[in-house]
Amino acid sequence: MKSITTLPCKSFLAGLTTVFFVSSCQLDESQQLEVQESEEVAEVTTKLSGLLFSEDFEGDDPLRGVHYQGAEDYSLRVVSWRSFEGDKSAMFRLTSSDDMVANGTRSEILVNDKASSQDMWYSFAVYFPEDGYEYDKTNESISQWRQSSGGPSLSLRTAKDELYIRVVSPKDEDKWETINLGPIIKDEWTEFAFHVQHSSDSDGSVEVWRDGNKILNYKGPNLYKGRGLPHWKVGIYKSIWNYTKTDSDIRAIYMDNIRYGDQNVSLSDLVTGSILNLADVVINNPKEPKLIIANAHTESLWEDLHPGKIIYFSRLGTNKFSLYADVDERVESVRFDLYRETSNGYKLIHSLHDGGYPFLLFGDNGKGNFYYGNNFLESGRYKVEFAAFADEKGVIPIGDKTSSTFKIY
User: Fold this and answer.
1) Which InterPro entries does the entry mention (predicted)?
2) Residue 109 — left, alpha, or beta (φ > 0 → left; ψ -120 to 50 → alpha)?
């Protein structure tokens, strides 16, 4: 079986007459990809702008020349029941019992075999269905940039219904930096665009836009030294399924409008379904967030909530209390998740997305007080997680999610 990754796709590259198709991929419900091959390869001479590849799955031959890695007939299908734009999209499906391909449990396409320059742009739209992409505390990749050897030096990953960038650490190539990109929004399309200055040195950078809003401006290396420029893959790769089970046994996502280009493209060439926000939404150097125990009876702040803090109601003077998020003034919303320790670990008992100041665990009545509702916590051990966002919807994160445990007596 042969494949090529020079990606002769639609009208963006013209003059290529030889195309190889990779088998074991199902098209539009029932059509199977077949291997086709001819004798001649014409020289590619036409390039429109700097856009080197664009796939919207609307044509007769989607994924022309793209190398695909998947074990089952259901691993990749072009479907007509869901689309970002147009009528079709690609559905990637992976189960924990799938055979490994290329030494891994994966359903991916190799969009290119090597970046054409250091300055590159990439984009796609992705849809996470509620039924098919359930909560899993372990991670997987949905987009990765990998060099000639080793794991991906840069990838977009998910875990615990959150999205994050994983990039090689500037301090130690054997370690990773992780950067929170906010929650997965189920049953909705999300459009990502990436501007990457591929480099193993400090001049490297990664910029990320989510639904037209810039959410990341990272400076630092994103390649391993001495291994060349990376190739780009999209789809699902869950490496932990190579050797063990996890919370879920099925992962399914839909992708559409997969594109990449060189330094001659712009963000507007890639972002198609989003309202492009040219303002820089990224909040640089935010104030370090912290939680403060709020006495909701006297409407006053009491003490900082440090990890392992013991809260004595007798000292607080009331059992009517909340937790106040002391965050940067540019924060628009905060999400709280409260867990109580049980014999089977911590169990989620309360969640709130607070879209207005003051940001409080149990919310307020819209008049700015420290308490609303009838939430009274009993004695026991708890864990609280909170995350700050630059938008009211809670999509554009500011920093990482913060977690703290505490006891109530």
Assistant:
1) Polysacc_lyase (IPR025975)
2) beta
Helix (H) or strand (E) holding 268: helix 267-270
Q: Output phi, psi for 241, to 5 deg.
A: -70, -5
Please report the pLDDT score of residue 43 as a whole number. 28
**Phi, psi at residue 400, to the nearest 5°?**
-95, 160
CB atoms within 10 A of CB 182: 23
Q: Averaged over 255-260, what is the pLDDT?
A: 95
The pLDDT of residue 321 is 85
Handedness of CA 262, 266, 267, 273 (dihedral sign): negative
Q: What is the average pLDDT across 248-275?
A: 88
The pTM of the full predicted model, rounded to 2 decimals, is 0.76
Give me the percent of the chain exceeding a pLDDT of 90.
61
169-194, pLDDT tens digit by residue? 999 989 999 999 999 999 999 999 99
Give the pairing of strands 106-112 and 176-183: unpaired
Q: For residue 59, what is the DSSP state? A: S
Helix, strand and coil percent figures for the chain, each rounded to 5: 5, 45, 55
Phi and psi dihedrals of 239, rounded to 5?
Answer: -65, -30
